[in-house]
Fold:
Amino acid sequence: MKRSKRADIHQIETALQAPLCLVRRRGLKRLGLLINRRGQVQLTVPWQHSDEFALQFAIENLDWLRQQLEKFRTRPSHRLPILKVDGQVPFLGQEFRLRWIPFQGRARAEFAERELQIFCSEPDAELWKKLIRRQYEAQARWLITERVAHWAGRMQETYGRVSFRAQRTRWGSCTLSGNLSFNWKLMFAPPEVIDYVVIHELAHRAHLDHSAKFWSRVAEFDPNYDEHRKYLQKHQECVRFLDGFELHASEEPGTAQLKSPWPESMSEEVDELC
Ligand SMILES: [Zn+2]
Structure:
């Protein structure tokens, strides 16, 4: 009896303990297998082949895939932790020490002199994430809203609502009607870089594209915009700050670690078998 596509996918995912994704893209000539940067098994399928045929190819190469996954999971850039108690968190371009203050009252996070202090009764990852996020968002709301008002005045631009969220792929955006939205994770960056993003979004009020005219408008108010843009590119991984962290209690009493399952580098690692 012919096996179903679903059974094949299940067999591969179970054997490898990793998710599988099928990709069909115009112009592909050969079947391909790789481990993508999210640690998924990616099977690329040209038009002339059926999914069933492609899945059979993956099943035949399970051993190779197992080796590649092992390499992926142990490669240096995949080694963890970014956040840990008594470790550092990035804020306004500086490192702040993450400190746990055992506390029975209302749980909260507060920035103090070069520290982000977490007041709560236990090191609970979900609670910590919520508290840290809330504190960053509050700081973003306070600082960025003020910078928008400041730069809109200087640039003589109007704007609508200002909102804050955690987009996966952008630091800010501007709609046709002038509503601005900013990623609260931008608070990791130095003030002049935050100003650049504000100026960038306000410059979209005059030019919706990224044309030469747009960039000269940005340069008028931020002559060092190129440097600030590069800073964001270099620290692109900060867009993942706090995503998917887990809490690992260590042996020492009173300390714990927050580990991220995300690779530090966002660059695509391609190891292809054709
Ligand atoms: Zn833009």
Observations:
- The first helix runs from residue 5 to 16.
- DSSP finds seven helices and 13 strands in the chain.
- The CA atoms of residues 144 and 150 lie 10 Å apart.
- Residues 200, 204, 210 surround zinc ion (CB under 6 Å).
